[in-house]
Design a protein that fits this description.
- By secondary structure, this protein is α/β, with parallel strands linked by helices.
- The protein has 2 domains: 263 residues, Phosphoenolpyruvate-binding domains (TIM Barrel), CATH 3.20.20; 71 residues, no CATH class.
- The chain has an 8-stranded parallel barrel, surrounded by 7 helices.
- β3, α5 and β4 form a beta-alpha-beta unit.
- α2 crosses α4.
- The two termini are 45 Å apart.
- The protein binds 3-methyl-2-oxobutanoic acid.
- The site of 3-methyl-2-oxobutanoic acid has 12 residues, from β6.
- 3-methyl-2-oxobutanoic acid (KIV) binds next to β6.
Length: 346
């Protein structure tokens, strides 16, 4: 699905009219309304056998791109902790961090169903806490639903949040917030007993009124059986192709994790290479005086230039590259291979 260019992206706007980061027009504008994805849409897709597409996003620009690509569901996962904040697991992520990132994502979303993760500790103490924190994600941050990890032990809690009018996406199988109980990030559901447990989880979450269910890190055969058995739309990650939809972490998809990908990840782009290349070229251009050029500079009106000439104020000679001579001289020194190596740290 293509939405065409953003209304503010047509042509290069002058700095005086719009800074380079501006506000998104939500809902596509009155002239181009975009039907939003809802809980009902997800159910209809399951019934019609149409795949549900889902991805994580953690900030405005990635949410904007993911939404524009026609992805149905955007998850502000607590994976933000690892993908963006540099934590070693998802456990340290706080409610305030989730609210902060969800608000940024909400500003970039026009069509997708926006789900925010309930972080570790935000629903483990009491149902009251869970409802209060889920309501924050909807009320303060703009989420349409929350995601809660856990199976039948969380079903009563899921029901309480649903009764507070907040749709819940459940999450079973490999649940990263249980990393210590699971003794690491291990594929789940590999024994008959464990498979029966996952069935019971899905059944109790369906009865609790969950809107959909994420199946993470379980054998393909188990995910296929649960998908066929439950009326809930299933969204898989490391759960094979037979789920009703698929979700991946944005940073895995575009190679921004700086570590080897898990087996279930497919890389569709190399943002690390793209960014590194752009950054090095920028650095080199600044050092060589190639950036900014005259075309990237503002100029005095001719009249003011003439008036200034009368004042006798010193005027540095333009060098052709847009750099005053003194800066070019320092650049020449820095451009020596040894100085460049020192700067690059290699
Ligand atoms: O936090 C997250 O990104 C998730 C997905 C992996 C489903 O929970």
């Amino acid at each position: 699905m293509e939405f065409g260019p953003h209304p503010l992206q047509k042509g290069g706007a002058a700095l005086e009219k719009t800074m380079s980061l501006t506000k998104l027009l939500r809902g596509g504008g009155a002239d181009r309304p975009i039907p939003p994805v809802t809980v009902q849409t997800l159910l209809e897709k399951k019934r019609a056998g149409q795949p549900i597409t889902a991805l994580t996003a953690y900030d405005y620009p990635t949410a904007f791109l993911v939404d524009q690509a026609g992805i149905d569901l955007i998850l502000v996962g607590d994976s933000v902790g690892m993908a963006v904040l540099g934590y070693e697991s998802t456990l340290p992520v706080t409610m305030d961090e989730m609210v902060h990132h969800t608000r940024a994502v909400a500003r970039g979303v026009r069509r997708a169903f926006l789900v925010a993760d309930m972080p570790f500790g935000s629903y483990h103490v009491s149902a009251e806490d869970a409802v209060r924190n889920a309501a924050r994600l909807v009320k303060e941050a703009g989420a349409h639903a929350v995601k809660i990890e856990g199976g039948r032990t969380r079903a009563a809690l899921v029901q309480r949040v649903v009764e507070a009018e907040i749709p819940v996406v459940a999450h079973i199988g490999l649940t990263p917030q249980s990393v210590h109980r699971m003794s690491g990030y291990q594929v789940q559901g590999r024994t008959t007993e464990a498979v029966e447990g996952l069935y019971a989880d899905a059944e109790s979450l369906q009865a609790a009124g969950a809107a959909a269910i994420v199946l993470e890190g379980i054998p393909r055969e188990v995910a296929a059986r649960i998908t066929a058995h439950t009326s809930l739309p299933t969204i898989g990650i490391g759960a094979g192709p037979d789920c009703n939809g698929q979700i991946l972490v944005f940073h895995d998809l575009v190679n921004l994790t700086f570590s080897p990908p898990a087996k279930f990840v497919r890389r569709y782009g190399d943002a690390a290479a793209l960014f590194s290349n752009a950054l090095r070229r920028y650095r080199d251009d600044v050092i060589s005086g190639g950036f900014p050029g005259d075309a990237e500079s503002y100029h005095l009106p001719k009249k003011v230039t003439a008036e200034l000439a009368e004042t006798g104020l010193p005027a540095p000679e333009p060098t052709g590259s847009g750099q005053p001579q003194c800066i070019l001289e320092s650049a020449a020194v820095l451009a020596e291979p040894a100085a460049l190596a020192r700067l690059a740290g290699d």
